[in-house]
Design a protein that fits this description.
The protein contains 5 helices and no strands. It has 144 residues and is mainly α. The protein is elongated and about 75 Å long. The chain starts with a helix and ends with a helix.
């Protein structure tokens, strides 16, 4: 999504340059405009992602506490597990969170190792692979 926004901003500036060549838009201006848009969009997305992750973690923590209190009050463990049987949805949320963290890490490393070339694809593939590997370990820990 971020990449598409950046590419569209670069394309808009290039189209303006090709349509109206009387202006003094240079490739340096295109790069500066793209870096300014990243500087605005990236913090907003990061803060919204952190808020989302915080609310999900608080929800999981409170559900865990409520389940333990129900067991302490005498409700059978089987009934409390049935009431809180949201494992599939929770696992999907955790999987997406781990995957997006891996993608974000890969994009950061790709940005730091400019110019974008074939090694950028290798960095992204490696970071996505590591995020799935982390999800695998999360599932193994949950099953025990």
């Amino acid at each position: 999504m971020i990449i598409l926004i950046i590419l569209s901003s670069k394309i808009n500036v290039i189209e303006q340059y090709s349509i109206n060549q009387t202006t003094n838009i240079t490739p340096v201006d295109v790069e500066r405009y793209a870096s300014e848009s990243i500087g605005i969009i990236l913090p907003v997305l990061l803060i919204s992602f952190l808020i989302f992750m915080l609310t999900v973690l608080v929800k999981h923590f409170l559900d865990f506490r409520l389940k333990n209190k129900m067991i302490d009050k005498g409700v059978s463990e089987h009934l409390s597990t049935y009431l809180f049987n949201k494992n599939d949805q929770d696992r999907n949320i955790i999987k997406l969170a781990i995957l997006f963290c891996g993608i974000g890490t890969g994009l950061i490393f790709t940005h730091l190792t400019r110019p974008v070339n074939i090694h950028s694809l290798a960095i992204m593939a490696f970071s996505i692979g590591l995020s799935y590997f982390a999800y695998f370990f999360y599932l193994r820990k949950q099953d025990k």
